[in-house]
């Protein structure tokens, strides 16, 4: 058993969430080991409630740690931690060089990835879903993969949960009132379902349980939140705008408190799935068959059958055919139906809580 294991995962938040299934697999096989993470700065507060404040290291590859100087400084810092094993969980030359420079004695990564020659053990990237491919990396550790693969899982920071309850109290939301959580933003414009559609779906779904609508996101999502709040108000409902100024840890706490989550194919959908919250997620330029969809029986994916899908691996800022019909024409009716089905299952106790 390795005493101290580093998981280097500096890609998007959704990928970090999926990687928690790999961490759970290692922890299950080696309960005495210390699991550490190297992640992009915004992922730090995502992981610290589960893995501990001192075990999540930020690598700001596009900021203070960019370039050769930042890479050398980070590898120097990593070397001081005395890791026995490092796993590069993404196909990245920068990561493989970083781990090699840190002189970690056992380094594992995907065969065929850039800089794979710097890994001591190279593992074939097999599996239909990213979670399965990630867990496959434990073959490099000699760990037997369990028959039932662990699901991604996240914890909630107590201080964030407290902040959310204080905000709800100040907004006049009683502890037993449900929240309909809406996360309308996306890093990619083509992955964004229109705000008006989110608003129409939220206005209808919130009436099923007299839920309060809450919109989470970044400061740049505020115009989306305003449009959603306008449409919810037309239906007689109130909205809490929690966009901007919210840390990732606080967003996790908001999602954990939700009765139902509506989100694009984005990090909030993965976070909701990892927290076991029912989530309806709208897919456009990407498709679940690419292997990055949120996992779990509380996830409902809504999508249109179109010949142009998928048109990209991660999404982009411009629709290649100029129509964006994959999401622009995705009806709120379908999202409402999917949300109703999840809420009904929650009430009947089938698959949802
Ligand atoms: S090409 Fe098709 S799938 Fe891609 S963004 Fe445009 S409409 Fe959507």
Structure, described:
The chain is 37% helix and 16% strand. By secondary structure, it is of the alpha/beta class. It folds into 2 domains: 4-141, Glycogen Phosphorylase B (Rossmann fold); 163-348, Rossmann fold (3-Layer(aba) Sandwich). The strands form 2 sheets. A 6-stranded parallel beta sheet has the order 3-2-1-4-5-6, with helices on both faces. α10 (267-274) links the parallel β10 (260-264) and β11. The longest helix has 17 residues, at 13-29. It is globular, with a radius of gyration of 21 Å. The relative contact order is 0.12. The mean pLDDT is 93. It binds iron/sulfur cluster. Iron/sulfur cluster (SF4) binds next to α11.
Keywords, please?
2 domains; Rossmann fold; 353 residues; binds iron/sulfur cluster; alpha/beta; six-stranded parallel β-sheet; single chain; 16% strand; 37% helix
Instruction: Domain count, please report it.
Output: 2
Low-confidence stretches: none
What is the ordering of alpha helices and beta strands?
Answer: EHEHEHEHEEHHEHEHEHEHEEHH
Mean pLDDT across every amino acid position? 93
Radius of gyration: 21 Å
User: How many individual β-strands?
Assistant: 12
Percentage of residues in strands: 15-25%
CATH domain class name of the largest domain: Alpha Beta
Brief overview, please?
The protein is 37% helix and 16% strand.
Architecture blueprint of SSEs:
Blueprint: E1 4-8, H1 13-29, E2 34-39, H2 44-51, E3 56-58, H3 67-79, E4 85-88, H4 93-101, E5 106-110, E6 121-123, H5 130-136, H6 158-170, E7 179-183, H7 195-205, E8 212-217, H8 222-234, E9 239-243, H9 248-256, E10 260-264, H10 267-274, E11 279-282, E12 299-302, H11 325-328, H12 332-348
Parallel strand pairs: 1-2, 1-4, 2-3, 4-5, 5-6, 7-8, 7-10, 8-9, 10-11, 11-12
Helix pairs in contact: 1-5, 1-10, 3-4, 6-9, 7-8, 7-12
The structure holds iron/sulfur cluster.
Residues 190, 284-285, 306, 308-309, 311, 319-321, 323-326 line the site of iron/sulfur cluster (SF4).
């Amino acid at each position: 058993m390795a005493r101290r294991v580093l998981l280097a995962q500096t890609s998007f938040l959704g990928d970090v969430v999926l990687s928690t299934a790999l961490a759970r697999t290692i922890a299950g096989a080696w309960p005495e080991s210390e699991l550490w993470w190297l992640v992009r700065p915004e992922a730090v507060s995502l992981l610290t409630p589960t893995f501990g404040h001192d075990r999540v290291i930020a690598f700001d590859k596009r900021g203070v740690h960019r370039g050769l100087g930042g890479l050398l400084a980070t590898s120097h810092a990593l070397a001081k931690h005395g890791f026995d094993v490092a796993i590069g969980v993404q196909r990245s030359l920068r990561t493989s060089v970083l781990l090699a420079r840190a002189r970690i004695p056992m380094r594992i990564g995907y065969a065929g990835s850039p800089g794979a020659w710097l890994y001591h053990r190279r593992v074939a990237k097999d599996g239909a879903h990213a979670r399965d491919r990630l867990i496959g990396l434990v073959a490099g550790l000699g760990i037997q993969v369990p028959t039932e693969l662990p699901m991604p899982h996240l914890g909630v920071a107590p201080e964030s949960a407290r902040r959310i309850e204080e905000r709800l109290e100040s907004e006049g939301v009683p502890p037993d009132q449900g929240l309909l959580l809406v996360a309308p933003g996306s890093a990619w414009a083509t992955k964004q379902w229109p705000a008006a559609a989110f608003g129409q779906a939220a206005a209808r779904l919130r009436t099923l349980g007299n839920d309060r609508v809450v919109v989470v996101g970044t400061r740049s999502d505020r115009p989306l939140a305003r449009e959603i709040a306008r449409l919810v108000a037309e239906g007689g409902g109130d909205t809490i705008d929690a966009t901007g100024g919210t840390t990732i840890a606080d967003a996790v706490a908001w999602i954990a408190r939700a009765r139902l989550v509506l989100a694009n194919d984005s990090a909030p959908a993965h976070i909701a799935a990892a927290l076991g919250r029912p989530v309806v997620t709208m897919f456009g330029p990407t498709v679940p068959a690419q292997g990055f969809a949120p996992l779990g029986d509380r996830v409902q994916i809504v999508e249109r059958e179109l010949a142009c899908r998928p048109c990209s691996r991660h999404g982009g800022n411009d629709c290649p055919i100029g129509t964006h019909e994959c999401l622009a024409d995705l009806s709120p009716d379908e999202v409402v139906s999917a949300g109703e089905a999840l809420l009904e299952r929650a009430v009947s106790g089938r698959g949802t809580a």
